[in-house]
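tool=predict chain=A
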Amino acid sequence: MLEATSPTVSVVMPIYNAEEFVADAISSVLAQSFRDFELILVDDGCTDRSMAVCVRFADPRIRIISQAHRGLASARNTGFLHANGTYVAFLDADDMWSADKLALHVAHLDANEDVGASTSGAVLIDADGHNLGIYRRPKTGKVSARDVFCGRVVVNGSAPVFRWEMLVESALPEDSAGRHWVFDERLQRSHDVECWTRLAVTSRFRFEALDEPLTYERVGVGRVPGDLMRRIDGWDEARDKIAHIAPEFVSQCGNEARALELRSVAQDCAQAGERALGLSLACQAVSHFPALLWREPARTAGTLLACLALRWAIADGVGGRLGFAAG
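tool=predict ok
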């Protein structure tokens, strides 16, 4: 609950065995040009040296909350329950922010009282932090709940900054322990897709995106083909959750949203070198929603070509300009 002396922004960082990257993530928050924030580090039962890295940061704005390992959704919820800010941002422990991210989002939210989620684009980086020259660009201007569900607005989980009210007013009913679930802890994957879409469908506030790439998203860390396939199953489970609260909405745009998710996973397969699997998924995406071929021809063709072993030519040449990495 908000307090009289609340910081403007609460930054929630779930951490599970991220000792290689967490120092960079924390440093990117402490380097923000906007200074009025608290940083809540949620130790989700780490078994590596992540917490040893975290305690080296001597900053009064940092708090560490520990819990038994329950997964990303639970860690995000725990952080939210301890948040005192007017606005709440989530940063994954392997991602980073540009120095002006919070300043730009706070200004955006302050100037638009009907906006509850201010999000932005992202730059893809590799495991070593090198810029891949590929950008995830959100849809800007007026966006709909359909756009959110289809992945056109929130490009990754470290991109949006929310009003506290938006999150609490559209949270799921309290669990047996009296905890608000902003994220559905029953979902092993795609709990963020379920959350953003639930907010877009039910909240009195709206989403809006800044065009600047203000987040650095680390990709290619620990991905295996089985994980990529389980991501599709997780997305289907999240879709079914959304259908319980908005069946007509899912009936209208579920096929398009699923096709875009299949295409996104196909792109990740190409980046991971699993081109045969990626090609199969890209073809499924087109079969599922053929309109992708004429509504988004560059991205769809780019995915198919990448999976046909032309991935490096696309990424190094026109892929970034075409938005190859966007979902």
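Residues 225-322 form one domain. The chain has two domains: 9-218, 225-322.
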